[in-house]
Design brief:
Blueprint (H helix, E strand, L loop, with lengths): L6 H12 L4 H8 L3 H10 L5 H10 L4 H10 L2 H8 L1
Length: 83
Amino acid sequence: MPMVRASLGKAVKKRRQELKITANHLAKAVGVNRSFISRMENHGWLPSLPLMKKIAKELKDKKLLKQYAIEKHPEIVEIIKEL
């Protein structure tokens, strides 16, 4: 069961809309069904890292990978602050 987060999904949706890409197009491009993209964008599901890399590449936005890392492993932020 995917973890539930909201801001990554919102960022993906915003970027997809900026590029005028449909959820169906993005889904086909990264090899998932449209309902997964919808769950990610609207319900905060986190994809696997390989899938997130495909999404970031398709949306031409590497910052999405940083957001993914923060949401998937929030403890990283605390570790970085301590450095």
